Amino acid sequence: MLLRSLFSAVLLLLPITAQAATFERCGKTEIAVASAALRGAGDIVLSAAATVSDSDAYRRWFGRYDSLRAETVRRNLKAINRALISDEMAVVCPAFGEDGCLRDTYANVYPDEPYIINLCPAFFRQPNMHAHPPGAPELEFGTREGTIIHEMSHFRVVADTEDLCYSRSDCSAMAERDPAGAIRNADSYQYFAEDVTFYPLPAEDMEALEDTALEDPATPLDRTLPPRSFSTGPGEACLTCRLSPAIDE
């Protein structure tokens, strides 16, 4: 009985690791880059869920603090993490012009087809986390890890987000004027997760992670947002694109 209890305790302390995603049309370098981004995204989104509070970072990306909205944000971040460690995670690497991968598109998904994500050529030219210091202009449109978080949030079974704004400057302005919209916006989750990783909590406060453990995956999410319709017509693959700034060829 004692050995069994000790074994159970060890299991509880082990980190939750991502399942191996499947890859389609991806070269070796693309698989390596995408795999690192998936792992990084899972790490930072779970840490972000633990830091949801009446903080500067929360107010910057989700507006005036409200406990009900904050709980929605926390729940959605945890749902993104669960999706990232799902054994159904699938990455496709379309060439330029395929599957909605236009010149200024980092990635795209179909909200009703979890958990398939198209990573476009522009994605692989994005910076990764910590490639630049916080506030650097190169981070205005985020990181690879952040783009993964953005796209995963679009799935209806995850957070059912929309694209109400793009870029740090536009989304921080939207949070101030429309907090209810900010918690439905994909970039808001991306930038919040990136920022609390750039500016982590003091070590003594990180014990809060234990109090915000992942919900039981078998427990259904409390869907507080109304359902929305997306076009799924032929030729409209780029339903929820992550747009990049203009890239010089």
Outline the structure in words.
This protein has a five-stranded mixed β-sheet with strand order 1-2-4-3-5. The protein has a single domain, classed as Collagenase (Catalytic Domain) (3-Layer(aba) Sandwich), CATH 3.40.390. It is 41% helix and 6% strand. It is built from nine helices and five strands, in the order H-E-H-H-H-E-E-E-H-H-H-H-H-E. Helix 3 packs across helix 6 (168-177). It is α/β, with parallel strands linked by helices and 249 residues long.
Instruction: Write down the Rg.
Output: 18 Å
Please give the order of strands in the largest beta sheet.
1-2-4-3-5
Overall mean confidence score, pLDDT: 78
Order of helices and strands: HEHHHEEEHHHHHE
Q: Show unreliable segments.
A: 1-18, 200-240, 244-249
Fourth CATH level, the homologous superfamily = Collagenase (Catalytic Domain)
Number of strands: 5
What is the name of the CATH architecture?
Answer: 3-Layer(aba) Sandwich
Q: How many angstroms does the end-to-end distance come to?
A: 65 Å
Number of domains as seen in the coordinates? 1
Give the C-level CATH assignment: Alpha Beta
Report the principal-axis shape.
globular
What percent of residues are in strands?
Answer: 5-15%
Classify the helix fraction into a percent range. Answer: 40-55%
Strand pairing plus helix content: what structural class? Answer: alpha/beta
Let me know the largest β-sheet: 5 strands, mixed
